[in-house]
């Protein structure tokens, strides 16, 4: 693969990104869902199935956000580990976390079967093995904690079934799964429409209101609804409260050719930090080994080539891959206390609901969101409500430490408002790339397109004014504070910002 080739996930290369007509004018619905990723589409589907008149709005396309960038392991073997989760939420909390993720895996399978969605849903075992230098005690502690959480059938084995390298001792987690995420979302889209729901893409939402007549609106359109669900991955309805409790990370993925039987079909993870995650995917061009890892905090580095190279080197040492066919990256929101934020608006706005804090389990968290929000909106009691409550307070030491660390890092980013400069002048910016420059004291995000035209906008993120950073892998401006992302010319790709970066005049 040429190093200049653009990042593109194997999912986007093998399934269409579905578009629907943008919404024009004012309309009403029982439930308006903002965001057509796994969280929004599952919520819309389950409510449509329950007889609600649902309307989905997305600024981009169905699956055009992080669900198109995932690796779609469907796992209840949680990456923060039951041992840590138990310390924060107790044994009951760990048990509810296990039950909810396992229920999500089962529900996805049931929906795919009921709706006839051909998305390659496949049940598999998952194997957790040690990163170099890690002690086997770690596996023993996790085995005990997972069993206490109610995870039946977890066992310690001398090695995972891979023959090309010795993983050493590992844990086997039964009843995990995988699928093709875009094919699944496209199937949900068909089902929602069949059930009488409406989907509008290209409909960027900038206004949200709770209340007895909740509302979502944007340029030239608006929806009044009994309930509004904000499933924009990072909520655009909340200025502070959730964003101080989660941190954005960028994770990197390669998909490389491998002989059909060379790696036993399973999910694999190591205990590294960041950890590696591995699965297989069949395509028309043959079997691919999909390997992720090498995460960094959003906007803190711009070295995707080195991250992909490190992933490839790690993979070649262990698995018999040949050519790398796809590589991409995506953003993950990591909650400081490990659990997603799913439920009522934490600022007390009635009939406004959020789903965020996906971490490495956004596919199951997004499905849990659909199940839990569906119940909350229909006033059906749900045992997971408290665990995922966006207004919860985690007072045990580990999350408090993470909370302080995350917010000190945000505070440090504000120094860049005064200091940051990537290039002295626009002449130094190569076509297809961007850099932060200074116009006097103001930081400017300058992007030179392939034709050589320079596009300039303010480099101050429209959420809370941190300085955005150029992401050369995804060609976007990424905010290091809370993960807002903008296109090269300043349009919002990802919240919490909902307003674009304002254009700036050329320097005189
Ligand atoms: C590299 C990588 C690997 C991962 N691997 C796994 C894995 O193996 N297993 C797993 O469970 N999870 C994994 N995850 C996490 C998981 O994929 C994501 O958490 C999940 O897909 C997020 O779904 P979502 O619906 O919350 O958000 P998204 O899919 O991002 O959907 C949000 C939607 O909201 C829209 N939107 C945003 N702002 C607005 C606005 N203002 N107006 C209108 N629309 C808006 C966006 O266009 C987008 O379509 C991974 C993530 C990454 C990046
Ligand atoms: S995302 Fe909060 S300041 Fe940019």
Kindly describe this structure:
This protein has helices at residues 10-14, 38-49, 82-115, 137-148, 181-194, 304-318, 362-377, 385-388, 397-413, 415-419; strands at 25-34, 54-57, 73-74, 122-129, 155-157, 170-178, 198-200, 205-209, 214-218, 221-230, 246-258, 267-270, 277-283, 286-297, 321-335, 341-344, 352-356, 433-439, 442-448, 454-458, 469-471, 476-478, 485-486, 492-494. Among the domains are: 10-70 and 182-244 and 338-403, 3-Layer(bba) Sandwich (FAD/NAD(P)-binding domain); 415-494, Rieske Iron-sulfur Protein, CATH 2.102.10.10. The protein is globular, with a radius of gyration of 22 Å. The protein contains ten helices and 24 strands. It is an alpha+beta fold. Helix 2 (38-49) runs parallel beside helix 5, helix 3 packs across helix 4 (137-148) and helix 3 crosses helix 7. The mean pLDDT is 93. The chain binds flavin-adenine dinucleotide and FE2/S2 (inorganic) cluster.
Write a brief caption for the model.
The chain is of the alpha+beta class and 508 residues long.
Provide tags for this entry.
globular; 508 residues; 8-stranded mixed β-sheet; binds FE2/S2 (inorganic) cluster; binds flavin-adenine dinucleotide; FAD/NAD(P)-binding domain; alpha+beta
């Amino acid at each position: 693969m040429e190093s200049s080739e653009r990042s593109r996930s194997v999912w986007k290369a093998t399934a269409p990104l579905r578009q629907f007509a943008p919404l024009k004018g004012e309309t009403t619905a029982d439930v308006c869902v903002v965001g057509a990723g796994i969280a929004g589409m599952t919520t819309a589907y389950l409510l449509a199935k329950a007889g609600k008149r649902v309307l989905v709005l997305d600024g981009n396309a169905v699956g055009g956000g992080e669900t198109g960038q995932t690796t779609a392991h469907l796992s209840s073997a949680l990456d923060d580990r039951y041992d840590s989760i138990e310390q924060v939420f107790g044994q009951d909390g760990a048990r509810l976390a296990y039950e909810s993720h396992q229920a999500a895996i089962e529900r996805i399978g049931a929906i795919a079967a009921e709706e006839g969605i051909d998305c390659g849903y496949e049940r598999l075992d998952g194997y957790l093995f040690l990163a170099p230098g890690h002690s086997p005690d770690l596996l023993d502690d996790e085995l005990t904690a997972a069993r206490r959480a109610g995870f039946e059938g977890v066992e310690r084995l001398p090695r995972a079934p891979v023959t090309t390298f010795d993983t050493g001792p590992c844990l086997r987690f039964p009843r995990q799964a995988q699928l093709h995420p875009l094919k699944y979302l496209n199937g949900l889209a068909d089902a929602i429409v069949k059930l009488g729901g409406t989907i509008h893409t290209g409909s960027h939402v900038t206004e949200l209101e709770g209340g007895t007549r909740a509302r979502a609106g944007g340029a030239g359109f608006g929806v009044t609804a009994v309930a509004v669900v904000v499933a924009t991955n990072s909520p655009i309805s909340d200025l502070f409260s959730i964003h101080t409790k989660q941190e954005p990370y960028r994770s990197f993925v390669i998909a490389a050719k491998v002989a059909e039987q060379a790696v036993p079909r399973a999910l694999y993870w190591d205990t590294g930090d960041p950890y590696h995650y591995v699965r297989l995917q069949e395509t028309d061009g043959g079997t691919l080994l999909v390997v992720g890892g090498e995460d960094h905090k959003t906007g803190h580095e711009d070295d995707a080539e080195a991250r992909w190279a490190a992933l490839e080197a790690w993979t070649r040492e262990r698995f018999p891959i040949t050519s790398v066919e796809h590589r991409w990256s995506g953003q993950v929101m990591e909650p400081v206390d490990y659990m997603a934020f799913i439920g009522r608006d934490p600022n007390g706005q009635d009939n406004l609901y959020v789903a965020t804090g996906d971490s490495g389990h956004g596919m199951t968290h997004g499905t849990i969101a659909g199940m839990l929000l569906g119940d909350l909106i229909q006033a059906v009691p749900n045992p997971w409500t408290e665990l995922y409550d966006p207004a919860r307070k985690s007072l045990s030491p580990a999350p408090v430490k993470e909370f302080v660390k995350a917010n000190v890092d945000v505070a440090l980013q504000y120094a860049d408002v005064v200091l940051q400069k990537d290039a002295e002048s626009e002449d130094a910016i190569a076509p297809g790339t961007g850099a932060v420059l200074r116009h006097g004291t103001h930081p400017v995000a300058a992007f030179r397109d392939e034709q050589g035209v320079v596009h300039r906008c303010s480099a101050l993120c429209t959420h809370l004014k941190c300085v955005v950073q150029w992401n050369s892998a995804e060609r976007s401006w990424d905010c290091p504070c809370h993960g807002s992302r903008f296109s090269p010319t300043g349009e919002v790709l990802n919240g919490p910002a909902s307003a674009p970066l304002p254009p700036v005049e050329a320097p005189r």
